Amino acid sequence: MFKISEFSKLSQVSIKTLRYYDQIDLLKPAHTDPDTGYRYYTANQLFPLNRILAFKELGFTLHQITQLMNDNIPVDQIRGMFRIKQAEIQSLLEEEQTRLQRIENRLHQVEKEGILKTEHEIVLKNVDKQPMYSLRQRASIQQIPHLLAQLNHDLGKNFSSFPQAVLWYGCEECEEAIDLEVGYLLKQIPTDSSVRVRYLPEVSMMATLLHRCHPARPCTASSDLAIWIEQNGYQIKENEPRREIFLHPDHKRENDYIAEVQIAVEKV
C-alpha cells in the first residue's frame, strides 16, 4: 500500500483533496491506522479516482459524483458522456472563434471611422432584372452559410457554382435576428420545376463597391458606401434592400470572397 503522500504523487491529486474525498465518503483510504490516523491507499484505487476526476471534467458536482460512483456506471456510458461533452466544447470553441473574428472586424471598422479608403472605386450602374433561387427569413449574420447550405440540401442540388446573394431588409423589431434573403443568382431559369425562382427587380441606379469579405462577418463596405453617398449628393432609395453579391472565392484568403455591395440610390 501507499502512504497518502505517495498516492498523491501517483495520482497527481493533492493531499488536501484526498483528505476531503475521505471526509465526504467519496474515496475512502484502503486502510487508516487507528493509532496514527495515517491513510493508506492501494494501486487499484487509482481507477475509481480517475473516474471521479472524469466526472468532474464533465461538470458534475461532488454530490452527484458520489451517486454516480455508487451506481457503478459502465465504461461505455462514461465514454458516451465524454463524446457529448467534447461536442459541446467544440461547439463553444467555434462560437468563440467566430466571436473573436467579429470583434476583430468591428475593431477594423472603428479604426477606419470617417475614412473613405476602398480597394476599388465606387461605381454607379444599372442592375438588370435577374432570376434568383432564394430563402427569406429572420436570422443572424452568422447563419448565412447555413441558410445557403439548407437551400442546396432541400433541393438536393449544388448551386455553389452560381454567385451567392444576400439581401438585407429593414426590420424594426429585429435585434440579433435580421430580415434576410439568401440565395443564388442564376444565369438562366432552370427547367426543373422544383426550383423556386423569383426575379430580383431591375434597379436603374445602384451604388456598388467591390471588396473582400466573409459572408458571415461584418465589413467596412457599407460605411464606405454611406460616406460616398453623403459626399456626392445621393440618398438611399426607399423600399430597396441592400444587396451583397459574392462573386467568387478569394484564393488568397481562405473562406473569403470577392463581393459586391449594391445599394439603390437616387439623386437628392
Automatic annotation (TrEMBL):
PANTHER family for this protein: MERR FAMILY REGULATORY PROTEIN, REDOX-CYCLING DRUG-SENSING TRANSCRIPTIONAL ACTIVATOR SOXR
InterPro entries: DNA-bd_dom_put_sf (IPR009061), MerR-type_HTH_dom (IPR000551), MerR_fam (IPR047057), Reg_factor_effector_dom_sf (IPR011256)
This protein's UniProt keywords: Coiled coil, DNA-binding
Coiled-coil residues: 86-113
Domain HTH merR-type, chain residue ranges per copy: 1-71
CDD domains, sorted: HTH_BmrR
Protein name according to UniProt: MerR family transcriptional regulator
PROSITE patterns on file: HTH_MERR_1, HTH_MERR_2
Signal peptide: none
GO MF terms, alphabetically ordered: DNA binding; DNA-binding transcription factor activity
